[in-house]
Amino acid sequence: MKYESAILVKVDKTTKERMKHAKINWSAAIRNFINEEISRKANLAKAIAQTYKLLATQKKSKHDTTSIIRYWRDKRYGPGSR
After folding, report:
1. pTM to 2 decimals?
2. pLDDT tens digits, residue range 40-55?
3. Is the dihedral of CA 49, 50, 54, 57 positive or negative?
4. In a domain, 55, yes or no
5. Which of 2, 16, 56, 60 has the maximal Cβ count within 10 Å?
6. Using one digit for the tens of pLDDT, what is the confidence trace for 58-78?
7. What would the DSSP string read from start to end of the chain?
8. Which domain holds residue 20?
9. Does 54 map to a domain?
């Protein structure tokens, strides 16, 4: 795979020393992390779009739901309950 762009990540000296001793391919690790984050954001955007689409297809209630909730709370716990 040919890479055409580069990014710079700055870390403190302690982190740099710890990275040297970790024996990890940091370029690959950072590339994988970036790709996973992009996929996660794309999946989140799809989920939000699907949620809005689903909500748009729902029928709107003709009833005042707050009064229904109040009725059942009053019935269960007594008038004026919270």
Report:
1. 0.58
2. 999 999 999 999 999 8
3. positive
4. yes
5. 16
6. 887 778 888 889 899 999 998
7. ------------HHHHHHHHHHT--HHHHHHHHHHHHHHHHHHHHHHHHHHHHHHHHSPPPSS-HHHHHHHHHHHHH-TT--
8. 13-77
9. yes
